[in-house]
Amino acid sequence: MPRRQVPPADPCAMVVFGAGGDMAKRLLIPALYNLSRTKVLPEKFALIGVDLAAGTAESWRDHLYDMLKSFVGNATAEFDIDRIDEAAWKRLTEKMSYIQGDLTKPDLYEKVQGALGDAETVHGTQGNAIFYLAVADRFFGTAVEQLGKAKLTDQGEDKNGKPRFWRRVVIEKPFGHSLDSARQLNARILRTLHEDQIFRIDHFLGKDTVQSIMAFRFANGLFEPIWNRDRIDHVQITVAETVGVEERGKFYEQTGALRDMVPNHVFTLLSMVAMEPPTGFDAASIRTKKAELFTAMPAVKPAQAVRGQYGAGTVLGKQVNAYRNEPNVAADSSIETYVAMQLEIDNWRWAGVPFYFRTGKHMSQRLTEIAIRFKQAPYTAFKDTAVDSLRPNWLVLSIAPDEGISLQFEVKRRGPVVDLAAVKMDFHYDDWFPKEPNVGYETLIYDVMIGDPTLFMRADMVEQSWRIVQPVLDAWAAEKADFPDYDSGRDGPKGADELLARDGERTWRPVIPASEQKL
């Protein structure tokens, strides 16, 4: 089947608040460059940078170009490229402008209004605009309110009741720090914006392998009939990182691993693997099924959760500090850098099937995967053979760093006796499809430009996510932890192993890519 061609996005201007920040430099601008390189970025486009720091379009462009150059041949960067496509970069930078100002002050929004008018005149953006909030989360509500007061979010209507042009706002995570704060933020921004104007972004959903989970489940008649409590014993979701908090100590002291990773990244993976089949692949159908899934999940009991904090140790051969010795971290900090939980889904498909997840920093390897263990086959047929036990079947959906799918099952060895062996079938994306430079934002930005909210969280989904974990946050806030409790370079505290062992003597899979695991 020939590959579908992606048409260029709608004409528009993108206003980036926080244009000089780390997120814009490392992820947003490289993604826009990629869209320019693949000619998906609209020809009628303008990029307006807004930041508190003084600067010009030229200085901003030069700074971004230096950052882009640092990615060339850098396999450890988020965006590893062989060379810079100068023509694609020029197509992007010739549409750049820059505004210096304080986003809490009304006069900045007057400047933005003028810049959007210039963009419409010079670049033909047709009045369409994206406001990208790449700023600290404490400014989300303020920025939206100021946009509303300046009439920048007004779309107007033609004689048929349709918007004459569109205005959309992209909001980075974290969307709240608790159930109450998420509700307050939703209420605050919905006083200015309609839900269909809000795009709550999570870069995990921009990864091809995450999106392919739905295709794997629903486009193959083989798997969906066994995707239920009758055949599946349990599910393990792992998001392991080798990095520590690095220079983000101040942020992490206010956030921790649970808030940073679980209501967004982890629940994103969970929703893809556990949602019911949608009636169609339109945004409304898919988001409704995800919302139904979260509604069916009881709040996690504190006894079903384990927290940990890394001590000193060795990661990838390098000696590293304990969390409490990182910059801007309290010497007696009780903030967790590791979380493990057992989740339940109270519906007909999943009742009685535990979903376990773990995520942590300074672990032994970088790994993101969803591992599905099927129920054990009966032993009776092999009772008179030399077979001691049957190993379980695993289906592993690998997200990073090894993108692919692995299936483990039993076969008979060659020879005159019945002797079983575990084998694997492995699919690797790189073996079948050309690898393209990607930071995970390209698809998401394109979807904002064409107004497709499929991969973005709705207000009710956000609030349900926080509801599920709120009892754990409350319990941990009330009790000081005995930290550190796992060495850097290890795969979490002892309590995480006990979480699985007390429920049917289950164990975590090794933190090793499925393709490298020995059977």
Which features would summarize this protein structure in a list?
519 residues, Rossmann fold, 19% strand, alpha/beta, Dihydrodipicolinate Reductase, domain 2, 6-stranded parallel beta sheet, 18 strands
Fourth-tier CATH superfamily name of the largest domain: Dihydrodipicolinate Reductase, domain 2
Percent of residues in helices comes to 25-40%
How many helices in DSSP terms?
Answer: 13
Count of individual beta strands: 18
Report the major sheet. Answer: 8 strands, mixed
The fold-level CATH name of the largest domain is Dihydrodipicolinate Reductase, domain 2
CATH level-1 class of the largest domain: Alpha Beta
Structural category? alpha/beta
Order of adjacent strands in the largest pleated sheet: 8-12-13-7-14-15-16-17
Residue ranges: pLDDT <50 for 5 or more in a row?
none
The span between the termini is 35 Å
Give the C-alpha Rg. 24 Å
Proportion in β-strands: 15-25%
Q: What's the number of structural domains?
A: 2
Mean pLDDT figure: 90
> How would you sum up the global shape?
globular
CATH architecture of the largest domain: 2-Layer Sandwich
